[in-house]
Each structure stands twice: as structure tokens, then as C-alpha cells.
Design brief:
551 residues; 27 helices; globular; mainly alpha; 3 domains
């Protein structure tokens, strides 16, 4: 019941938030063609990069995973298109599928599985979810809305260090010192939050359908037993992280919620005044918090698989030799070397976050000693550059690592902020702005960069440009910032002191004033023109509210 006041805000935010759209469900629509499917997959990837999820560049590993998937799908009469595989750099055992045909495989999965049979079991389970259209039945509210406020909450929750000073909105000069080392952990937290939360019935269906594919493809279904144990351990860790984040969101929401709203029935107004984005966060977390409590135990899942195999067995065990590629692709060769380097990179960042940078020296110098490996998968530059900047005190070399990473297609938001931070330090504001523009274009969401763009424009002395960017931020988020909502809802003027929230709040803080408010004040000196614009603004916002609420 405590969550009810936030629900209207969650609906409103879900209806109007553009950046969450790439991960939204598409239930009821016909299957997209190849071109649309590729576009949807790319859009989902950009969403991941905006959330600072970090991906390994390895065509060899991706081909290997695709070959296993193709072998499994060939056992079906009408299989879906083969998925696209993305290998996420993470120390968590994590595999999930999205609604657009991407399967995200954590690099730790490839390090932990002991055979191709076990890897095929993991992939078959995700393919079974795809074939059963489980993702299409998910509640869209379970896709955590992606906002600057949400990103801040996640970053703070995973930051084990004590920052030397509180970062100011849009500040870039201390980005490497205060934010860089937590990028990887924040990306892992985001994958926790946006991975589908299947229910027990769906998991059982996927287990048995996966077993059927595994057996038909010639793999050993006994591999499911060890897979279930690994998944169960990972779920416990993930559930704890999600709950910790939910508690943070709840505390923040309650700090804004009026202790005793005068109008108990005006839940919409109370929710909006508590903070639109925080309310949406809490509603989303409320659906995610218990995601890991509705699963059978590993023993129950293994027994169900065994019973299924016994019931459906033909009495003849497939004698097909297992694929010999596992050792060559995952333990040796380029793929094996890259997975080992990725583990070293994760150890470097974990040491930095844990306040023991000295223990990362050997791993960091090992990474830097192999420039070919850094070039092969530029994500390794994050660990190498973090160590160079904060331990070795070689910012010029760290800047080279940042530039190498941000020049690639899989560069996340943090890579562009990182490179721009060095340019700001040197007073090269023009190139810093160009770097941020590049990142905004590649990721496809300028909102994620606008506070930093404003700070760069101010730093260069271009106050007119800073003001223009503030108004751009206003157009992107002003319709849903608390100051404007309060103006609309409080005819008596009670909301005059409301502060902007979310991305617009960050832009206002970076700019030093509220550009919308300043223009309103200027318009008041021209009553006729000013009143018309204010009336137009109120009408547009009112229409948005009514549409979102189905009126």
C-alpha cells in the first residue's frame, strides 16, 4: 500500500519517457523483418551503452555463441531468427535476452562454464524464452526508467570509495578521479535491473524446452545440473543488489513525499510533488525487488529436468561426439586470451573501488604490456586508463586510453565523458564539446550529455550557448520537471518554490539559473505576449497529463 502514491507518476513517466522506449515491450505486433530487427537490436545496444554497460569486442567468441545457437535452433520446426550475441564485461554470472533478439552473455559465464554442453544449456534456456514469447508478456513498468536521477542513484549505490569532493552537476574536470573506477560496477547494476524477471512458470517452461533442444542437438542434458547451481548463486547476489538499490530509491522518494498531504484524495498531485522521476523509480523497483524469490531451487529444477528426460527418452543415448571447439575458443586462442585479460581488468577496477590500488599494479601493467590486446577489445582501456590516471599519475597516457575507447562503436557514455574531462582540464573546450556531441549522436540521447555540455559552454565563456543548451534541456525535460508541474497544478501559487528535478534539474544546476523561469519573468514585462505563451505552455502540459492518464 505504501507504493500507491507513486503509481500515477510511474504511469506518467512511462508514457512520456523517450529513452526507455528502446527496451519497451511490443506485445501484439507482428514479428519485424530483418531490417527492422537489426534496427531494434542496435537501439537496444545504444540503450545499454547509455547505461554504461561495457561490452567485450570479440568476433570469435560471438561467432562461437552464434554457432551453438544455430545448432540448437536447427532442432525446431519453425525457429525464430538466430539472435545477436553481446558479451558483457562483468564478474557476475549473467545471461539474459531482451525483446529485440539480443542475448547478453556475461564474460564470467564463459569463464565459469566447464564445457560446451553447459554453455549450450545456458543458451538453450534463453532461446526457449524467446520461442515462447515470454519477453512480450512482461509488464513495461518492470523496465526501469532511465533518467539522470536513476543513473546517479545507481552510481552512488555501487561506489565503495569516498570521493574527495562532491561532484557538481555537469562537472568533468574530476571525472576520472571521482567516477571512472565505478563505471564497470554501475554497468553491472544496470544489467541486474533491466534483465527480464521471469516467473516460476516461465522458468519451468524454459528449462524443459531448453532440455529438448539440447538433447536434439546432441548435447548432454546433465549439464543443466551444474548450470542451475551457478544461476542460483548469481540470483542471490543480484537480488541483494536490487534490494539495496530499491531501498535507496525508497529513502529518496520518502524524503520528498509530504508527511501529511492536505488533500488525501489528490494522489496525483501528491505523487507529482514528491518527484516524478523518483516516484517512477520506486514503482519500478517495487516490481523488481522480489524478482529472485519466485524460482525453484537448483535441486527442484534438476529433478524436473531428470523426470522430463526419463518421460521423453527413446531409450537410446545420443553417441554424437561433443564439439571440440570449447577448449580452442574459450580456454585458448584469441577468445581465451581476451577472457583472461577481461578478468585482469575487472580485478584492477575492483582493487581501485576497494581502496587497494596497489594490489592492481601487476594486472594493470600486464594489460598495458599487450597493446594488441587493448586494440582488439578497447573496453580494456577502462581499467588500464583508470590505473594510469589515479595510481601511476600519467594523465596524458590515460587520455590516450580514453580516446582509443571513445573512438569505437561499443563505447559507453562514460567513455565520452572521460575523454572530454581531459580536454576540459587543458581548456580545450571546443574539442570537449565535439566529444560530447559525438557521444550523444552515437548513443542517440542528448539528454545524457546536456548537463556536461552546459558546463563546457560556461567554461569556455560562451554563455549564450550555455543558455541555448539549457533551453534544449528544458524542451526535452521541462514538461516533466517539478517546477513546471507545480506551476500548472498550483493555481494559488503554492508551487512557486518547487525545484526542477532529473535531467532538467541537473541542467539548471550546471547553468546556475532556471532558463524557463527567467523567460517567464521576462515575458511578464510584456503581458499580452507573455500570457499567451504561458497559456500555451499550460495547455500542452495539461494535454500530456490527460493523455498519459487516459483521459
Amino acid at each position: 500500500m505504501a507504493h500507491q502514491p507513486f503509481f500515477p507518476a510511474a504511469l506518467l513517466f512511462a508514457a512520456l519517457a523517450g529513452s526507455a522506449g528502446a527496451l519497451a515491450d511490443k506485445g501484439g505486433k507482428p514479428a519485424p523483418g530483418p531490417e527492422q530487427r537489426a534496427a531494434d537490436q542496435a537501439a537496444a545496444l545504444r540503450d545499454y551503452l547509455g547505461r554504461d554497460m561495457i561490452f567485450v569486442t570479440s568476433p570469435e567468441l560471438e561467432r562461437y555463441l552464434q554457432d551453438i545457437a544455430a545448432k540448437l535452433l536447427a532442432t525446431r520446426e519453425a525457429p525464430p531468427p538466430s539472435p545477436r550475441f553481446l558479451v558483457q564485461s562483468t564478474d557476475e554470472f549473467s545471461v539474459f535476452t531482451d525483446t529485440h533478439g539480443n542475448i547478453v552473455v556475461g564474460s564470467e559465464v564463459l569463464r565459469q562454464v566447464e564445457s560446451e554442453d553447459e554453455l549450450a544449456a545456458a543458451i538453450s534456456h534463453e532461446l526457449a524464452h524467446v520461442i515462447a514469447n515470454h519477453a512480450q508478456t512482461k509488464n513495461v513498468v518492470q523496465s526501469l526508467p532511465f533518467t539522470v536521477e536513476a543513473a546517479q542513484l545507481v552510481a552512488v549505490a555501487v561506489d565503495n570509495r569516498t570521493s574527495k569532493h562532491a561532484a557538481r552537476p555537469g562537472e568533468l574536470s574530476s571525472f576520472a578521479e571521482d567516477s571512472l573506477a565505478t563505471t564497470q560496477a554501475a554497468g553491472t547494476a544496470w544489467s541486474d535491473l533491466i534483465a527480464p524477471a521471469w516467473n516460476r512458470k516461465q522458468e519451468r517452461e524454459a528449462d524443459l524446452a531448453g532440455v529438448d533442444m539440447v538433447r536434439a542437438a546432441g548435447y548432454d542434458p546433465a549439464a543443466f545440473s551444474s548450470l542451475f547451481a551457478r544461476i542460483d548463486a548469481a540470483q542471490a547476489i543480484r537480488s541483494e543488489r536490487v534490494e539495496n538499490l530499491r531501498q535507496g530509491a525508497l529513502a529518496k522518494a520518502q524524503s520528498r513525499k509530504p508527511a501529511d498531504p492536505s488533500d488525501k484524495g489528490d494522489t496525483l498531485k501528491a505523487s507529482l510533488k514528491a518527484g516524478l522521476e523518483t516516484g517512477a523509480l520506486e514503482a519500478a523497483f517495487a516490481g523488481l525487488a522480489n524478482w529472485g524469490t519466485d524460482y525453484d531451487s537448483p535441486e527442484q529444477r534438476s529433478m524436473a529436468v531428470l523426470v522430463h528426460v526419463q518421460k521423453t527418452s527413446t531409450g537410446r543415448r545420443d553417441k554424437t561426439p561433443r564439439s571440440p571447439r570449447f577448449e580452442a575458443e574459450v580456454r585458448a586462442g584469441p577468445g581465451g586470451r581476451l577472457l583472461a585479460a577481461d578478468r585482469a581488468a575487472l580485478e584492477v577496477l575492483a582493487a581501485m573501488n576497494g581502496g587497494q590500488p596497489g594490489s592492481a599494479d601487476a594486472a594493470a601493467t600486464g594489460l598495458l604490456a599487450d597493446p594488441a590486446l587493448l586494440a582488439a577489445s578497447p573496453h580494456l582501456n577502462l581499467a588500464a586508463g583508470t590505473w594510469l590516471d589515479t595510481v601511476a599519475r600519467k594523465p596524458a597516457e590515460a587520455e590516450q586510453r580514453a580516446a582509443a575507447w571513445s573512438a569505437t562503436d561499443l563505447a559507453p557514455r562514460a567513455a565520452y565523458l572521460w575523454q572530454a574531462s581531459y580536454q576540459v582540464r587543458k581548456g580545450d573546450f571546443a574539442n570537449a564539446m565535439a566529444t560530447l556531441d559525438l557521444g550523444a549522436g552515437r548513443i542517440g540521447d542528448r539528454n545524457l550529455f546536456l548537463p556536461q555540455m552546459i558546463a563546457v559552454a560556461k567554461g569556455s565563456g560562451d554563455l549564450a550557448r550555455a543558455d541555448e543548451l539549457g533551453m534544449e534541456c528544458s524542451r526535452a525535460g521541462a514538461g516533466l520537471n517539478m517546477a513546471n508541474v507545480a506551476r500548472l497544478l498550483d493555481a494559488t501559487g503554492g508551487g512557486a518554490g518547487a525545484q526542477p528535478t532529473g535531467v532538467y534539474g541537473e541542467c539548471v544546476a550546471a547553468l546556475g539559473y532556471d532558463p524557463v523561469q527567467r523567460r517567464e519573468q521576462a515575458l511578464q514585462t510584456q503581458p499580452a505576449a507573455g500570457q499567451k505563451q504561458l497559456n500555451d505552455f499550460s495547455k500542452k502540459l495539461s494535454d500530456k497529463l490527460n493523455k498519459a492518464l487516459g483521459r
